[in-house]
């Protein structure tokens, strides 16, 4: 998903948009190397191996990748968005977030 995520970061660079990753691979050094190699520009938290880490447990994650889309008010709007489905969700939510930021 990294290429798609990278394209979203670029597309929404001037919008109220952020990606935050949570990684549950076993080897933290391997994760760091991959993040560097893939040039990830967004934060990615280490949650320990598997889906029993503290973040995964609190959020009810049972498999990877899991994508949560939160709106500008912090409300979860989707837990299933990937690929084109994620694009459509963002195309709906980003204008609302921009409008809300202008109104403030």
CATH topology: Glutaredoxin
- Quickly give the structural class: mainly alpha
Beginning-to-end CA distance, first to last residue? 34 Å
The CATH architecture name reads 3-Layer(aba) Sandwich
Averaging pLDDT over every residue, what do you get? 90
How would you name the CATH homologous superfamily?
A: Glutaredoxin
The percent of residues in helical segments reads 40-55%
Overall shape: globular
The largest beta-sheet arranges its strands as 1-2
Taking pLDDT < 50 over at least 5 consecutive residues as the criterion, the unreliable ranges are none
Q: Output the radius of gyration.
A: 15 Å
Q: Provide the β-strand percentage band.
A: 5-15%
Task: Describe the protein's architecture and organization.
The chain is mostly helical. It has a single domain, classed as Glutaredoxin (3-Layer(aba) Sandwich), CATH 3.40.30. The protein is built from 4 helices and 4 strands; from the N terminus they run H-E-H-E-H-E-E-H. It has a two-stranded parallel ribbon with strand order 1-2. A two-stranded antiparallel ribbon has the order 3-4. Strand 1 (21-23), helix 2 and strand 2 (44-46) form a beta-alpha-beta unit. The longest helix is centred in the C-terminal third of the chain and has 21 residues, at 83-103. It is globular.
């Amino acid at each position: 998903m990294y290429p798609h995520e990278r394209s979203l970061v670029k597309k929404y660079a001037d919008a109220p948009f952020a990606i935050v990753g949570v990684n549950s691979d076993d080897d933290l050094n391997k994760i760091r190397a991959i993040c560097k190699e893939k040039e990830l520009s967004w934060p990615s938290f280490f949650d320990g191996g598997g889906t029993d880490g503290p973040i995964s447990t609190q959020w009810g994650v049972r498999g990877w990748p899991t994508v949560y889309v939160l709106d500008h008010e912090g409300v979860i709007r989707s837990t299933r968005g990937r690929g084109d489905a994620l694009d459509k969700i963002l195309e709906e939510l980003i204008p609302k977030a921009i409008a809300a930021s202008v109104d403030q």
